Amino acid sequence: MKKIIVLTLGLILLNISFAQQFTLPSVDLKTLDGKTINTRDLLKDGKPIFLDFWATWCKPCIVELNTLADLYPDWQDETDVKIVVVSIDDARTQSRVAPFVNSRGWDDFTILLDPNGDFKRAMNVINIPHSFIIQPNGKIFWQHTGFAPGDEQEIYNQLLKLKAQLDTTSKK
């Protein structure tokens, strides 16, 4: 039993260490209007990013994004975060993404398409929703898989923690 606990703790620490060392990869994605955007371009404005992988068929993803849409204006004012959501809908269901997004009122989010799963693979995403908080320098600050009501408080706490860290760093 002790070996399992030690192994589990080791894996958790490795994951935390990996998350803090991993940098946002350079992958070309599509916008809803068909333009190509490189993921590294998301960092140009120097803001933290809440990055979320989702799909139109994923119920927890929809609950999460609906919840975040309600909270985003306040979060943006308090933490300067921008929300970028990446649909992993494939070529068959990709045409549903724009009408789906428009019907949900997710207008404030940056919506990107990853129909071939290149970005998903580069970010080691297996299950969705999978969320990341990305520092302005491109390093992953925090990540989380799944969503249940109440998880938005943990996301918010992590955003505040990053904001405090960035404020401290900028004062030095």
Describe the protein in words.
Helix 2 packs parallel to helix 5. By secondary structure, the chain is an alpha/beta fold. The chain has a single domain (24-171), classed as 3-Layer(aba) Sandwich (Glutaredoxin). It has a 7-stranded mixed β-sheet with strand order 2-1-5-4-3-6-7. 44% of the residues lie in helices and 20% in strands. The chain starts with a helix and ends with a helix. The radius of gyration is 16 Å and the shape is globular. It has 5 helices and 7 strands; from the N terminus they run αβββαβαβαββα.
Give descriptors for this structure.
single chain; 172 residues; Glutaredoxin; 5 helices
Topology:
Blueprint lengths: L1 H20 L6 E4 L4 E3 L10 E6 L4 H21 L2 E6 L9 H8 L5 E4 L4 H5 L7 E5 L5 E6 L5 H21 L1
Parallel strand pairs: 3-4, 4-5
Antiparallel strand pairs: 1-2, 1-5, 3-6, 6-7
Short account of what is shown:
This protein has helices at 2-21, 59-79, 97-104, 118-122, 151-171; strands at residues 28-31, 36-38, 49-54, 82-87, 110-113, 130-134, 140-145.
Number of domains: 1
Quaternary state, please?
single chain
Strand order across the largest sheet:
2-1-5-4-3-6-7
- What is the CATH top level name? Alpha Beta
Pairing-aware structural class of the strands and helices?
alpha/beta
Find the CATH topology. Glutaredoxin
Helix content: 40-55%
- The coarse silhouette is globular
CATH architecture: 3-Layer(aba) Sandwich
Q: How many strand segments? A: 7
SSE pattern: HEEEHEHEHEEH
User: How many distinct helices?
Assistant: 5
Find the CATH superfamily: Glutaredoxin
